[in-house]
Amino acid sequence: MSNRTIALDDRLYAYLLANSLREPEVLRRLRAETLTMARASMQIAPEQGQFMALLVRLMGATRIVEIGTFTGYSTLAMALALPAHGRVIACDVSDEWTAIARRYWAEAGVADRIDLRLQPALDTLDRLIADGEAGRFDIAFIDADKENGLNYYERALTLLRPGGIVLIDNTLWNGSVADPARDDGETAAIRALNAALHGDERIDLSLLPLGDGLTIARKRGNG
Fold it and tell me: What is residue 1's predicted lDDT score, i.e. its pLDDT?
């Protein structure tokens, strides 16, 4: 028994994957291709993708907005968990990265569930709100530039229905958020976001030590 989260060394992490991960082959190959890229560290961990897919199914989600798509691993993990009529609006600015994503989405047979919008995410989110989409989404996943974290969060919360959830990646930032010697812009922005969510009475909150830190915030009924 323990009164705190267990630390994962390489041996225990390998055991976790061996006894939990059920990664579809198409996701495994997408992850492998992404690992050959210079920005491979931007990809979520496979156990995080599986957890997010489980949340999609548990919530019976049909509408998701994703802020930051990269090569599309998280998008694909969630899209595979959606019913056939479900949709993910995926926001990114890189045609190069998302070209890889498109190949795998098509191969997995879920390209028709994904609406990729290549422009600054704030523009897409503001357009969705202006078009009357507030309160109509089940899940929002934020995994983009950290300086805009609070801006993304506020718009995501507006778009979510009561009971919907915001998932925010990198909220432990490889431990840097707890290092007083780190004062760069990205780390400061994540600390500010974490503090803001901790004090936000519109949500129920949990920050999990999953991947690089995954925050789950549930929009309360009066949020």
Answer: 60
User: In this predicted model, what pLDDT tens digit does every residue of 130-170 receive, in sequence order?
Assistant: 999 999 999 999 999 999 999 999 999 999 999 999 999 99
Our measurement of the distance from residue 133's CA atom to the centroid of its chain's CA atoms, rounded to an integer in Å, reads 20
Q: Are 103 and 72 in contact (CB under 8 A)?
A: no
Q: 90, exposed or middle or buried, with CB in 10 Å at 0-12, 13-18, 19+?
A: buried
59-106 per-position pLDDT tens digit: 999 999 999 999 999 999 999 999 999 999 999 999 999 999 999 999
How many residues in the chain? 223
Q: Are 61 and 31 in contact (CB under 8 A)?
A: no
Alpha helix locations (H) across 41-184? 46-59, 73-81, 95-108, 121-130, 149-159
The answer to whether residue 120 scores a pLDDT higher than 90 is yes
* Three-state secondary structure call for residue 66: strand
Q: What is the Cβ-side half-sphere exposure of residue 116, based on CA atoms within 13 angstroms?
A: 24
Q: What is the pTM of this model?
A: 0.96
